């Protein structure tokens, strides 16, 4: 009975990444022997045990044989006769197919260390193609390891394309896809995940609404980066720099889906794309069973990012900061604050503004542009909300009249706030 550290812990340690989770493989043992040593069995599909003290997972060495479609269609063989090399060859990538002995010796039968040095994501064997989830996993590793310069090997890209063409990805459950998306949105470079999927055609299968953004033209003056797909990937990266909140990052990914359904003859303009995007965001969220809170936030950003941008504007020259001025009507400002829930939840509204800032900065040459709209909206909210509800009630208003008076008071406060401003007070980023 021999125990080895395997997988991500070995890989990350060699890359100098801090290791949080450690997985182990046990060679030469039976479930009975594991239980006798105090391990707790937790695996149903194959024998996985929790260490009695550390609670780290220990899996018996195993092999797998494909029996059906999808990523559940496997027959697992876990016996004391299964070798370490046989267990490692069933893994996805060479950099994940290394093991370490208790003495610290690296066991690397499939050249994972060489691929680590060369910054290559390469499949271990043709058995890779038996599990469609691995297409998403490779894309996720590309996102996680992008700061180290990792790229997917050409032969692995070709194999992933074959898997997409075979229809295997359609067997993935919505929950499993969403789990991968969550992990990606928490990664260092989430756009790399979607770029890899696009390179193998998987975006068209899983994320049709995003795929539709490829090649969709935008006004060059405002979007020198090119089409909507490129812009969306840049906004996603910008959101990652501004916030670690998954709501903000997912909304950044969804915010411009409406541009994908603009008739070609109207390009490069996309009037009304905000409203056009709402059913598309809902479709994505329904398909992947996205949590309601995440969906609602993405819908607010999708619907109102245009108006939030337009809160302040410059004249045609657009260069002199003194030309910055409020653009919308007081009732429109109030409508945005009301419908975004700002009066009830200022913190969430501020997150919406952060997503809009990511949109503004997700453009070529605008990556560090100031976004005074965020400060302006928060100041506007504080001013608008200075309505004494009790005073209104004391004046004798009742029922529906109270709400009408509160709304009127907020709009009047907005109007007074705007009139009190000078251009210098609007310059905060």
Please provide a written account of the structure.
With 429 residues, the chain is of the alpha+beta class. Among the domains are: 2-110, Beta Polymerase, domain 2 (2-Layer Sandwich); 207-380, Hypothetical protein af1432. The protein has 19 helices and 13 strands. Helix 5 (133-144) runs parallel beside helix 7, helix 11 (228-242) packs antiparallel against helix 12 and helix 16 (346-361) runs antiparallel to helix 17 (372-384).
Name the descriptors.
429 residues, alpha+beta, seven-stranded mixed β-sheet, Hypothetical protein af1432, single chain, Beta Polymerase, domain 2, 13 strands, two-stranded antiparallel sheet
What gross morphology would you assign? elongated
How big is the Rg? 27 Å
For the report, how would you describe the main beta sheet? 7 strands, mixed
Count of individual helical segments: 19
In whole angstroms, how far apart are the ends? 62 Å
CATH topology of the domain at 207-380: Hypothetical protein af1432
Strand percentage, roughly?
5-15%
The main sheet orders its strands as 3-4-5-2-1-8-9
Task: Give the helix/strand class.
Answer: alpha+beta
């Amino acid at each position: 009975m021999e125990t080895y550290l395997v997988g991500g812990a070995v890989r990350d340690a060699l890359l100098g990444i801090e290791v949080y989770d450690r997985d182990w493989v046990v060679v030469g043992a039976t479930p009975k022997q594991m239980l006798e040593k105090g391990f707790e069995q937790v695996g149903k599909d194959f024998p996985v045990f929790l260490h009695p003290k550390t609670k780290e997972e220990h899996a018996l060495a195993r092999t797998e044989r494909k029996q059906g479609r999808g990523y559940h269609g496997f027959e697992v063989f876990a016996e004391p006769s299964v070798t370490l090399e046989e267990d490692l060859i069933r893994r996805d990538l060479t950099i994940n197919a290394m093991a370490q002995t208790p003495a610290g010796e690296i066991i690397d039968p499939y050249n994972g260390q060489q691929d680590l040095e060369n910054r290559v994501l390469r499949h271990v064997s043709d058995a890779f193609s038996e599990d469609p989830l691995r297409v998403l996993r490779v894309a996720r590793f590309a996102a996680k390891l992008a700061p180290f310069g990792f790229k997917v090997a050409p032969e692995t890209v070709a194999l992933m394309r074959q898997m997409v063409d075979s229809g295997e990805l359609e067997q993935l459950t919505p929950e499993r896809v969403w789990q991968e998306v969550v992990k990606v949105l928490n990664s260092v470079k989430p756009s790399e995940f979607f770029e890899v999927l696009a390179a193998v055609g998987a975006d068209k299968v899983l994320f049709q609404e995003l795929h539709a953004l490829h090649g969709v033209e935008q006004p060059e003056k405002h979007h020198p980066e090119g089409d909507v797909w490129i812009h969306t990937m840049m906004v996603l990266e910008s959101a990652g720099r501004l916030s670690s909140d998954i709501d903000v990052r997912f909304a950044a990914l969804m915010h411009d889906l409406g541009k994908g359904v603009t008739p070609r003859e109207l390009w490069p303009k996309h009037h009304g794309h905000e409203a056009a995007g709402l059913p598309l965001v809902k479709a994505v969220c329904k398909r992947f069973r996205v949590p309601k809170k995440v969906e609602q936030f993405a819908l607010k950003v999708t619907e109102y990012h245009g108006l939030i941008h337009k809160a302040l504007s410059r004249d045609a020259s657009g260069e002199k900061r003194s030309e910055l001025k409020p653009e919308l009507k007081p009732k429109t400002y109030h409508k945005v604050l009301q419908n975004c829930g700002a009066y009830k939840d200022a913190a969430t509204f501020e997150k919406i503004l952060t997503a809009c800032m990511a949109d503004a900065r997700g453009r070529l040459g605008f990556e560090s542009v100031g976004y005074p709209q965020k400060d302006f909206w928060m100041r506007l909210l504080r001013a608008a909300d200075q309505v004494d509800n009790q005073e209104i009630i004391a004046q004798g208003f009742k029922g529906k009249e109270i709400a009408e008076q509160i709304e009127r008071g907020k709009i009047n406060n907005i109007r007074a706030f705007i009139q009190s401003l000078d251009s210098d007070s609007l310059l905060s980023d």
